[in-house]
Specification:
Pfam families: Transposase_24. InterPro entries: Probable_transposase_24 (IPR004252). Helix 8 crosses helix 9. The chain is mainly α. It is built from nine helices and four strands. Strands 1-2 form a two-stranded antiparallel sheet. Strands 3-4 form a two-stranded antiparallel ribbon. Among the domains are: 64 residues, no CATH class; 57 residues, no CATH class. It is 61% helix and 4% strand.
Length: 188
């Protein structure tokens, strides 16, 4: 989201937009929704980072003594109590179980696939990589698949794609491979 300072103002219907209202034009047709999405993202990111700090220490006393620098004491005490609560642990357990069941991981960390795609775009044309190339970028490390499940899925999609092209064109496999390369821009 980009904001331009000094532009004509958009009307915002919420009190939280009072300061923004007079100084910025928001590019979204629903500026309060965009502000809400961004706020939610940063709130979750900050809580996640603080929880990672919380997990570094084994006891409640150690956690309280090793407060992050960007958090005030009252907020940290509240978070330590919250992260230690049964409610939080009950909420976290299904997420932990689901994460353990994941077979296909990626190498992007917190970076979104959209950000990876944007970074890998052709600088002269602005064209971003196709979906299969993006899959390779996010699931291969040093030229090797990060796990067998990623490789199997990639091979399955390639085979299905070749099969569809073959059925549509009625051509031999070599012609289909060239056609697939043309479609997916693999020859660049």
């Amino acid at each position: 989201m980009s904001l331009s300072r000094g532009s004509p103002r958009n009307s915002l219907s919420t009190p939280s937009g009072v300061g923004v209202r007079s100084r910025y034009t928001l590019p979204s047709p629903n500026p309060t929704g965009e502000i809400g999405r961004q706020s939610k993202f940063y709130f979750k990111y900050r809580r996640s980072r603080l929880y990672d700090h919380f997990k570094k220490y084994a006891t409640k006393e150690e956690r309280l003594q090793n407060m992050p620098t960007d958090v005030n004491e009252a907020e940290w005490k509240f978070l330590v109590e919250y992260f230690d609560s049964d409610t939080f642990k009950r909420m976290s357990e299904p997420n932990r179980t689901n994460k353990a069941k994941q077979e296909i991981n990626h190498i992007c960390g917190r970076k979104s696939f959209q950000a990876v795609s944007f970074e890998q775009r052709n600088t002269s044309t602005g064209k971003e990589p196709n979906l299969q190339k993006l899959w390779e970028l996010t699931h291969m490390k040093n030229g090797h698949w990060i796990n067998d499940a990623s490789a199997e899925l990639n091979n399955g999609v390639s085979a299905a794609f070749l099969n569809i092209i073959s059925n549509l064109s009625g051509s031999d496999e070599a012609s289909c491979s060239r056609l697939m390369d043309d479609i997916t821009d693999e020859h660049e």
